[in-house]
Structures are given as C-alpha cells and as structure tokens.
C-alpha cells in the first residue's frame, strides 16, 4: 500500500508503512504490558484486602472471557469502520479502567476495572485488531513488518512494580497517562498535518497538567515511606498490610516509640501477618522486653502464620533463636541459629548471631571462625561496624 504523492507522508525519507509499524509497536506494548501486568498486582491485592486467591485471580479469567466474547464483535466493526474506530475505542476503555483502578476497594471494582474495561481495551488495541490491517501495508517485507509490530506479545517490554498496592496504584495512573498521550502519535494519520501540529501541543499541555498534579500528590509520599503508609492507613484504617509496612518504616527510621505502639496494636489484635509479628518480636527482643516478645512469638505460633507463608521461615527461626537467647537458653538458641543457617545459607545475620552465642558460651575459636564467615558475606560498608561489635562481645566473654 502506497500513499498518494500529495499526502504529507510522501515527504518522509522512508516508506510510510514503517511508521505505522512503529505506532503499532508502541500501542501493542502498552496494551499487552497492561493486560499481563495483572499477575504482579495479585500479591498486594490479596495482602491488602484479604481476598481469596481464587477471587482475585478470577478477574484475570473474567478478562479473558470478555476478550473471547468481544473478538467477533471487534472483527465485525473492523470490517465496517476500520482500525481507527476500534483502536481509539480500546484506548478510551483502557484509559478509563486504569484511572479507576486506584479506587478499587471491593471485588466487583476489580472485575469492572481490570477485568472488563482494561481487558476489553487491550483486545481492541492489541493483536486482535492489528493483525487484521497491518499485513495490507506490506507485500515484500510483510512477515518482518508484522513480526516487529507484534513483538510486545512476547512481553519483551519489562515492567517491575513495587510489592505495595499503593505504589502500583500510581503505576496504573502513569500507564493511563501514556494511553492519553497515544493519540498524539497517530494524529497525522487521522487528520491533515496542519491540524496535527495544533493538536499535539494541546495533548502535550494536557499531559503536563496531569503530570504536575500527579507529581504534587505522589512525590511527597514516595519520598518518605512513613508519610506514605500513614496516608494509606488513614485511607484504610483496617488494612493489616498498611500497618505492617508502616511498622517497617518506623523501624527503618529508628522511631522506637511509634513502632512500639503500632506493634502492640498488631499483637493485641492477633494480626495474621508474618512480617508484622516478626518485626514486633524483634523490636521487643532488642529492648530486652521478654513479655512483649513472648506475646508476638505466641501469636506467630498460634495462628499458623509461618506455615501459611513459608517465605518467612528462615527469619522466624532466627527470631526464635534470639527469643531463646533473651531467655538465657544459650543451647537452644545455638541450635536455632544453626537451623536458620541451614534454612538460608546466604544470610550473614544468622551466622553473626551464632558467633555471638558461641562467644557467650566461651567457645571463642568457633565464634571467631563463624564471625569471619559472616563478615565476608556482609556488604563492604557494613563489615567494619560488624567486626567491632563481635570483637567487643569476644572481649567481654574472654575469661
């Protein structure tokens, strides 16, 4: 397919079809990446709202069902009205779904936004639509051109979102902004070049306005984890995930007073949150508070929290060893630290804890050997301080 000699595309230094392929690649990359990023949202969705895994995953399956039902309709509209109407309609649906996604609070919200709107939009923006018209732009290089346009189907565009649903909400808004900007890429194919020259600055101004508002809201939150999770907790007062992440932020800031109050609240409500209880126990152990440490450890054991999430097993074993050490059960603590090393051989903290308990039992040579192993595993900037700590312990326990 060749463009007429009077068309603006005739002044391009290359065949206009390659521009179509480039636009199709960008459109496909946004559509496919948004559609397949659902799996990255699963863990934070389940953690924040406490939904069953099948309930959350059902939205993904529902999206495929919507896509399957919609495909014949998309093909019929494509035959009757062409790709412009189909792709722009898909763009509107996906943008609406992504802008509404940060407001998710109920399962049906998830099904409507990511399940219905985003899936329907992705169907109209991706291979279902593109595979029907792209081949007509090429004869000799048809296979190569279509393959390039459909490369995003292989998910070659990387996307990494944070473990927190609150960070992912802003990522959804950013992708929605990209969808808003997409029409500026295809504007030359929709109208005369003069109109496109006027429209693209307007689109850029709209983009800039959204960006300024988004930056003013998100940057202050992203710059400070404590402010972010305090805001999240105000928005969702019953969210265990928000409380747990706020507790971690307090501990990173060494704000023991607020961390202690939040940890006590989590323990009192028997929150089924492994990192929450582990942080609460470690905080109490660091303050030599046996009573509070025992309550946190008891909550971990009674609720089968670790059994339901074995990712935290090595850390639990290490914390249990510290708890036994606080009880002056050095033999039990030594065994627990050895178990922690077997559970995670790359963890230097377990080796350093074992070196400390060996030193307290007067096993100086074994303690120094274990400390040397641990120091080699620490980052270089932490080795000096860790070395000073173990030397003080060895000096104190020397007969």
How much helicity do the residues have?
over 70%
Unreliable segments of 5+ consecutive residues: 155-167, 187-193
What is the level-2 CATH architecture name of the largest domain?
Up-down Bundle
Question: Termini separation (Å)?
Answer: 91 Å
In short:
This protein is mainly α and 399 residues long. Helix content is 78%, strand content 0%. α4 (83-100) runs antiparallel to α5 (107-125) and α18 runs parallel beside α20.
Write the layout of secondary structure elements.
Elements: H1 16-36, H2 38-49, H3 53-81, H4 83-100, H5 107-125, H6 127-133, H7 142-149, H8 165-190, H9 193-223, H10 225-235, H11 240-252, H12 256-268, H13 274-286, H14 290-302, H15 305-308, H16 313-326, H17 330-343, H18 348-360, H19 364-377, H20 380-397
Summarize this structure as a short list of keywords or feature phrases.
399 residues, mainly alpha, Growth Hormone, Chain: A, Serine Threonine Protein Phosphatase 5, Tetratricopeptide repeat, 20 helices, 78% helix
């Amino acid at each position: 397919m060749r463009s007429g000699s009077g068309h603006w595309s005739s002044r391009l230094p290359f065949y206009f079809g390659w521009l179509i392929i480039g636009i199709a690649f960008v459109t496909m990359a946004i559509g496919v990446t948004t559609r397949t990023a659902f799996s990255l949202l699963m863990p934070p969705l389940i953690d924040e709202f406490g939904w069953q895994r099948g309930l959350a995953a059902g939205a993904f399956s529902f999206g495929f069902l919507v896509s399957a039902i919609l495909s014949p309709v998309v093909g019929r509209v494509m035959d009757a009205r062409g790709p412009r109407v189909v792709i722009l309609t898909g763009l509107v649906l996906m943008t609406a779904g992504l802008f509404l996604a940060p407001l998710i609070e109920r399962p049906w919200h998830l099904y409507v936004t990511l399940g219905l709107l985003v899936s329907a939009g992705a169907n109209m923006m991706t291979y279902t639509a593109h595979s029907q018209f792209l081949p007509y732009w090429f004869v000799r290089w048809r296979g190569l051109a279509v393959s390039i346009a459909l490369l995003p189907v292989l998910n070659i565009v990387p996307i990494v979102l944070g473990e927190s649903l609150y960070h992912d909400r802003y990522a959804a808004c950013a992708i929605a902004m990209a969808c808003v900007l997409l029409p500026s890429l295809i504007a030359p194919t929709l109208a005369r070049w003069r109109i496109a020259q006027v429209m693209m600055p307007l689109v850029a101004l709209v983009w800039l306005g959204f960006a300024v508002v988004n930056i003013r809201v998100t940057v202050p939150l992203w710059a400070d984890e404590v402010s972010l999770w305090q805001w999240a907790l105000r928005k969702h007062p019953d969210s265990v995930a928000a409380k747990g992440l706020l507790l971690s932020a307090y501990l990173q800031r060494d704000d023991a007073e607020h961390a202690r109050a939040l940890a006590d609240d989590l323990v009192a409500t028997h929150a089924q949150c492994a990192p929450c209880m582990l942080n609460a126990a470690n905080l109490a152990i660091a303050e030599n508070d046996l009573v509070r440490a025992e309550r946190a450890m008891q909550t971990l054991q009674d609720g089968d929290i670790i059994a339901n999430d074995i990712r935290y097993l090595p850390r639990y074993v290490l914390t249990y060893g510290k708890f036994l050490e606080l009880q002056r059960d050095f033999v039990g603590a030594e065994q627990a630290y050895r178990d922690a090393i077997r559970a995670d051989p790359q963890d230097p903290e377990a080796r350093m804890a074992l070196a400390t308990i060996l030193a307290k039992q007067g096993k100086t040579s074994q303690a120094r050997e274990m400390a040397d192993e641990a120091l080699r595993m620490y980052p270089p900037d932490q080795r000096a301080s860790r070395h000073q700590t173990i030397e003080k312990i060895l000096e104190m326990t020397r007969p």
